[in-house]
């Protein structure tokens, strides 16, 4: 809890300093697509995915394997790989319902969606209940995951604010650079929290070996 609290406070301090000390151009550069923060977030997701994969191999635990899969998926999503090799994003419904993409792309996209759905099902079916129980017990690793998911969810809500709340569209347009910076900052904070999950496992594992 100490680590995640420190990350959250660091994000708040960073945003405060940025909005107080930087001009609009620098704020735009920091929060831009493919900017420094977004690239750091993608690299962070890749690092967490790699560490989680190593832990999964070491422990043979499905939860860690699924965690690695979704972190790798988040990394690819952050790098816009969901539309890098197709006519449009294969995560959008219109990709399959319209004439945007050829049939081959639709089939490939459908297979990826099925894989994601299957992994999500196993995560929810076999691990979600235990995770919630650990959160309610204020178990440190479970809380770190909870806060990381919350931070990531908040960032995605900001990103979708124009669609979720059309009445705020004008506000979003007037403050788009600032909103982008807040979104990218919270995504990076989520990555740091996910990294804490891995570090907490190593810390716990080291302590159990010493005993």
Can you characterise this structure?
The protein is mainly α and 211 residues long. It has a domain at 2-57 and 139-210. The protein is built from ten helices and no strands. α3 (36-59) runs parallel beside α10. The protein is globular and about 50 Å long.
Count helical runs. 10
Helix content: over 70%
* Contiguous uncertain segments of 5+ residues: none
Main β-sheet description: none
Give the mean pLDDT.
86
Radius of gyration using CA atoms only: 19 Å
Content-based structural category: mainly alpha
Order of helices and strands: HHHHHHHHHH
End-to-end distance: 23 Å
Overall number of strands: 0
What is the structure about, briefly put?
The protein is mainly α and 211 residues long. It has helices spanning 2-21, 24-30, 36-59, 62-78, 94-97, 103-136, 140-159, 161-164, 169-174, 176-210.
Explain the layout of strands and helices.
Layout: H1 2-21, H2 24-30, H3 36-59, H4 62-78, H5 94-97, H6 103-136, H7 140-159, H8 161-164, H9 169-174, H10 176-210
Helix pairs in contact: 1-10, 2-10, 3-4, 3-10, 4-6, 6-7, 7-10
Keyphrases for this structure?
10 helices; globular; 211 residues; mainly alpha
């Amino acid at each position: 809890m100490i680590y995640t609290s420190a990350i959250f406070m660091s994000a708040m301090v960073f945003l405060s300093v940025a909005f107080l000390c930087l001009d609009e151009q620098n704020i735009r550069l920091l929060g831009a697509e493919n900017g420094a923060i977004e690239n750091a977030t993608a690299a962070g997701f890749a690092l967490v995915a790699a560490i989680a994969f190593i832990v999964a191999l070491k422990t043979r635990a499905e939860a860690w394997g699924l965690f690695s899969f979704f972190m790798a998926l988040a990394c690819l999503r952050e790098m816009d790989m969901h539309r890098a090799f197709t006519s449009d994003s294969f995560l959008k419904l219109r990709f399959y319902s319209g004439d945007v993409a050829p049939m081959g792309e639709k089939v490939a996209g459908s297979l990826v969606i099925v894989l994601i759905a299957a992994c999500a099902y196993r995560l929810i079916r076999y691990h979600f209940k235990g995770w919630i129980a650990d959160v309610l017990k204020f178990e440190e690793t479970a809380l770190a995951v909870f806060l990381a998911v919350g931070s990531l969810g908040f960032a995605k809500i900001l990103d979708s604010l124009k669609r979720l709340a059309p009445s705020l569209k004008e506000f979003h347009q007037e403050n788009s650079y600032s909103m982008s910076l807040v979104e990218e900052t919270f995504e990076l904070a989520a990555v740091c929290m996910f990294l804490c999950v891995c570090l907490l496992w190593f810390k716990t594992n080291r302590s159990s070996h010493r005993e």
